[in-house]
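Summary for the steering committee. One of the milestones for this cycle was to obtain a three-dimensional model of the protein with beta-D-mannopyranose bound, which we needed before selecting residues for the alanine scan. The sequence and ligand used are listed below.
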Amino acid sequence: MASSDPSTQRGQNGRSYRSNGHFRELFRRHPENPILTASDWPYAANTVFNAGATRLENGETLLLVRVEDRRGISHFTVARSDDGFGNWRIDPTPTFLPQPDEYPEELWGVEDPRIVWLPQLEQYSVTYTAYSRNGPLVAMALTRDFKRFERRGPIMPPEDKDAAFFPRKFGDRWALIHRPVPNMPGAKANMWLSFSPDLKHWGDHQVLIEARSGSFWDAGRIGLSPPPIETPEGWLIIYHGVRHTPAGALYRNGLALLDLEDPRIVISRGDEWVFGAEQDYELTGDVPNVVFPCGIVVDQPSGTVRMYYGAADTCMAVATAKLADLVEWLRAEPNPITSSTGIDHLAQLGPVLG
Ligand code: BMA
């Protein structure tokens, strides 16, 4: 299915109605979006969306796609492509099915995987949402080949989602970004950072980035989208923000930058979103108005990132950007950490890195 450029979406009077052309668009949608839909699937599937992504050693792009069946329960299936845009080769049967007998936290499925290569372990980590009887929690598995997975079970209790590791240790500890949801009225669903010596025991939990307030695009709740991206200027964070409206939630993406050696330090955070639902396949589907990236691949020579996102909880799409443009946009943003984020106290916490 080919997409139409938002600037050419016109009403009866010929005027464009979805884009006023004065924003700097950092991400370009692939002209063949959506790149994967349930109709491409080799077996029965309701929707295919929110895939984790990585580039394999042989240059292939691998997506670990969330597939929802008609019970409403999700599993993961691998899709591979040489250029990361087309000719996807999809595993003929599910790759990673929930195993509630052995892993009761997976009772109602597995969702929204994030893939990070951990050079020290020479394995890929897959952090995912396991939908347990007590609510969604963060679980993790390790794999070398995306065929056999070593499940490590829950690493954060419910409700918690949107988790990914940093690819390397800080001092002698791993770090995890995740998004617990407090149930105290008025407390917000913020992004947190936690540390572990062994990927199993987690501590020094702290708020990393807070949801904003009032009418802001990221006032409802926020969460990490793809895993952190290492750049010379810092860890680039693409996060999703939710604004609740009478017509439902709007899911969009914004940017922040963390200190390379101390990821507790937020160097900057953009005030505006940089990617939101505009195209038909993002506006219409099981959950309208959702763009939800879980995977990113950096093409080193060109400095281009491919951001893979679920559209409207229904299909998979991809958009590209120049990594340097994303970092430069953040630098140019007039609002580095200000009181509107309420997190500048973190810099005063003192060293906790091992
Ligand atoms: C979030 C997650 C995602 C989903 C999004 C929009 O809370 O559950 O899996 O894409 O909502 O429905």
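Key point for the committee: Residues 18 and 39 are 28 Å apart (CA to CA).
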